[in-house]
Amino acid sequence: MSDFEPGIATKAIALEVQTLGLSSDYTDNIMIRSVTRQMMTLTLVPEQYVPSLFANLGQEISDSERDELAGLFKYFNDYWMRRISVWNVFDVLEKTNNFSKGYNNRFKRRLQKTHPNIWLFINSIRKEVSTVHDLITQVNTGMQPRTKRLKSRIAEQRITELYNRFNNNQITPHDLLRELSSFVANEKYNEI
């Protein structure tokens, strides 16, 4: 469906890390980074486990690290724990909206201006309609749509495998959270 919910939570938590002055701790301390990423990952685990997983997040870190993260825990508890069903996407099959982002970027490039005049806008819409008709014809004649990048396919397979192992009681909710956290904030936010 949409990566809006997990994406917005990840961005909001990353921003709060910066606001609280924890950026260097996040970068330098693997345990603080691990707990923070697991907090970001709560969007991807079954909703009924979120409260207990959140409550147990600080168990793996020292008292001083827990004290450093106290503001972040308070923020998450006060802001995100109120309506878990709004942001939890565990049951959502398609967790990305990259196709719509790609479409919007293509249309923006077609416009070539931030604020086009009405004639340029109409002309761009006509070209877009023609492109969409061509794509529909290609699909109807059996052409394969553009495939996802290998990196994305591997990540999706790994996440599906984790969900299957969880559903078959081969891993615990905590194991699921820890494993999924390797897919959250893995590039963009490594250096918050």
What does this protein structure show overall?
With 192 residues, this protein is mostly helical. The chain has a domain at 98-140. It is 65% helix and 0% strand. Helix 10 (150-167) packs antiparallel against helix 11. The longest helix is centred in the C-terminal third of the chain and has 23 residues, at 118-140. The two termini are 27 Å apart. The model has no long low-confidence stretch (mean pLDDT 86).
Task: Lay out the secondary structure.
Elements: H1 4-19, H2 23-28, H3 30-41, H4 50-56, H5 63-68, H6 70-79, H7 84-87, H8 98-111, H9 118-140, H10 150-167, H11 173-180
Helix pairs in contact: 1-3, 10-11
Compute the number of strand runs: 0
* Poorly predicted ranges: none
Q: What percent of the residues sit in helical stretches (DSSP H or I)?
A: 55-70%
User: What best-fitting shape do the alpha-carbon axes yield?
Assistant: extended
